[in-house]
Design goal:
The chain is an alpha+beta fold and 236 residues long. The protein has four helices and seven strands. Strands 1, 2, 3, 4, 5, 6 and 7 form a seven-stranded antiparallel sheet that branches.
């Protein structure tokens, strides 16, 4: 009975562990939720209300490139603004935020240590966007930045996929090389076996030739002795 209880406990623990692993994997597959923060940040003529979204695991130049591609989908013209060390998109149309009216959007990507974030200022016809002035438009701006952050994350994962695919190809090339080496080693063994077989045959033939030569040496030695004896007789 005790061993049955112990076995049941082990099965239960294994099942729970498997469920935990599955839960972790499921959570890893869920789309991330990007937090957007509101606050006063330096713009051109002083501080102004901005929305800031963190962009983990991405390079600032990549975040900037994706922002320009992203904001230009909504019309307007995006250009570098040296005064704010960021970008200004003029006369863009983001209906969820500004309705049918055009507005300017300022944006700056900042990098501190391993942290990259984008701050955006939405200069609407009603003034610089803030949550306590237009909650609906503010919520749309939050979603706007979250969608942008998702595109950044997708680009980051695409880069990661590219790196992993390169690593896989390198491993596959290593495997091909190892297989070729393995075939070469087997061929070396076969060649060595053939050389050994040939050497063994040579040894057998050599030993036979040694026996025959030993016999001829004996016969020749007899001939030498006979000639030597005859020479001795002649010299007497």
């Amino acid at each position: 009975m005790k061993w049955l209880l112990a076995f049941t406990c082990c099965i239960s623990l294994f099942t729970l562990s498997a469920q935990d692993d599955t839960a972790i994997q499921d959570n890893a597959r869920k789309k991330p939720i990007f937090q957007v923060h509101e606050g006063e940040r330096d713009l051109i003529d002083g501080a102004s209300n901005a929305l800031t979204v963190d962009l983990p695991e991405i390079k600032s130049r990549t975040a900037e490139k994706i922002w320009k591609d992203y904001i230009e989908k909504f019309g307007g013209k995006t250009k570098k603004n040296r005064d704010m060390k960021g970008y200004l998109t003029e006369s863009t149309e983001i209906y969820a935020i500004g309705g049918l009216q055009k507005m300017n959007v300022y944006a700056r990507v900042e990098e501190e240590h391993d942290r990259v974030a984008l701050s955006a200022w939405f200069d609407t016809p009603k003034g610089m966007l803030r949550s306590n002035a237009d909650a609906k438009a503010y919520a749309a701006a939050v979603q706007f930045l979250q969608d942008y952050a998702l595109e950044v994350k997708i680009a980051q994962v695409e880069e990661e996929l590219e790196d992993e695919e390169k690593a896989l190809k390198n491993l596959e090339r290593d495997m091909d090389r190892l297989k070729r080496d393995n075939e070469g080693y087997h061929q070396d063994i076969e060649d060595a076996k053939e050389r050994i077989k040939k050497a063994e045959d040579n040894i057998v033939n050599n030993e036979k030739e040694q026996e025959a030569t030993t016999s001829r040496i004996g016969e020749q030695d007899i001939k030498v002795n006979k000639v030597r004896e005859w020479l001795t007789v002649l010299k007497k």
